[in-house]
Design brief:
The protein is mainly alpha-helical. It is built from 15 helices and four strands. Helix 3 runs parallel beside helix 6.
Length: 374
């Protein structure tokens, strides 16, 4: 899916080298300034919170389905929202202090916000290029987009290489947040180096779920994968490529995933995909740990459901500082991710995810019992 010819890779290397050396000396026309201002305005409006940015990705994909990354970003952003509301849901408030919940939310929200404010202008510039029937990618630098991306948008325009563009965007966005979030001392001290974050990895809690519904049985199903070593940028890029390959590997499942996303607006509650297991209204009594009556995967009805609130009921919109300046791309070494094929994911995530829920319940129950004894 991702294999490229040596000649094409060399062409990309030359393009990136030229972009790295080039300086934007020409003045912008009035029309170009208007385009940039409009794109920046729309990006700010739609970067309000996880709900608005997740919907913006989907709206764009519906209009421009050739941009595969927009669908992948929509689904991954849904997962970010679910992780945010988990912090105020059934189990994690019993395992984390209130300050740890806030710190973890700030970490997730900052990454989600940064990726959108970097990627969405690129999407809008592509849409404007289609509208004008001419490429406008010389404006990318004026939108503070890494010089790494310009050759890939140009290649898409001339050669329709949407697979290549998707991988390039995966590389770009993970590199973009590497120093701004993952290696940022604030988040390393409050989240990444905390015992609880390591516990998340031990519990396989870093799942990315792609819900879809089979048309005949009307049964909700999940596919996806689990990322380990989240702090490794290479691992995140490999995982992103694997998710992309999984998402587009079966056409019928892809169509079912898109249909589900279009008919189930993102609220941040896991009730969106499993209403028989989750509810956005708390059903268990205060101070009591929810007890599963059977495996979560059985989805038995008429049982007490797990509390999974909608995002806007538990988190206010976050005030962000301006994105840190600078271009991560200083050489061509990231092109090896374009050449290499994706590490395949088997997509079998339901049992693993259900086991994680059971482990979280046991951990919350044990801590709650120990706390009350103390």
């Amino acid at each position: 899916m991702f294999k490229q010819t040596k000649e094409h890779i060399n062409q990309l290397k030359r393009s990136i080298t030229a972009s790295l050396l080039k300086r934007n000396l020409q003045d912008l026309t009035l029309k170009e300034k208007e385009i940039i201002e409009h794109i920046q305005h729309l990006t700010t409006c739609r970067n309000k919170n996880n709900i608005t940015r997740t919907q913006a990705y989907l709206d764009f994909y519906v209009e421009h389905p050739e941009i595969h990354w927009a669908l992948l970003a929509h689904l991954v952003s849904r997962n970010a929202g679910w992780n945010m509301t988990d912090l105020k849901g059934e189990y994690l408030p019993k395992l984390l202090t209130q300050q740890e919940q806030i710190d973890f939310f700030a970490f997730l929200e900052r990454g989600n916000w940064l990726i959108f404010q970097d990627a969405y202008p690129q999407l809008l510039l592509y849409a404007e290029s289609k509208k004008q029937s001419r490429p406008l990618f010389h404006l990318l630098s004026h939108l503070h987009i890494s010089k790494f991306m310009k050759p890939f948008w140009e290649s898409l325009w001339t050669n329709k290489r949407n697979n290549e563009l998707t991988v390039a965007l995966i590389i770009n966005e993970q590199q973009y947040i590497e120093n701004r979030v993952i290696q940022n001392s604030v988040y390393k001290d409050t989240v990444l180096n905390k015992t609880m974050f390591k516990l998340q990895d031990i519990l396989n809690f870093n799942h990315i779920l792609f819900p879809y519904q089979t048309p005949l049985q009307k049964k909700m199903k999940l596919t996806g994968g689990t990322v380990h070593h989240f702090s490794s940028v290479d691992e995140r890029i490999h995982f992103g490529k694997g998710l992309y390959a999984l998402l587009y590997s079966i056409q019928s499942r892809l169509e079912q995933t898109v249909e589900w996303a279009k008919t189930h607006p993102h609220t941040g509650s896991r009730k969106d995909y499993w209403p028989d297991l989750f509810n956005d209204i708390k059903e268990s009594p205060p101070q009591q740990v929810h007890e599963l009556q059977s495996s979560p995967c059985t989805l038995q009805t008429n049982k007490q459901r797990i509390y999974s609130p909608s995002l806007t009921t538990v988190w206010k919109d976050w005030e962000h500082e301006q994105a840190e300046p600078g271009d991560w791309c200083h050489n061509k070494k990231m092109l090896h991710f374009i050449k290499k094929g994706a590490k395949p994911l088997d997509g079998e995530i339901e049992k693993t995810y259900c086991a994680t829920i059971e482990e979280l319940e046991m951990a919350a129950f044990a801590k709650n019992k120990w706390f009350h004894k103390k």
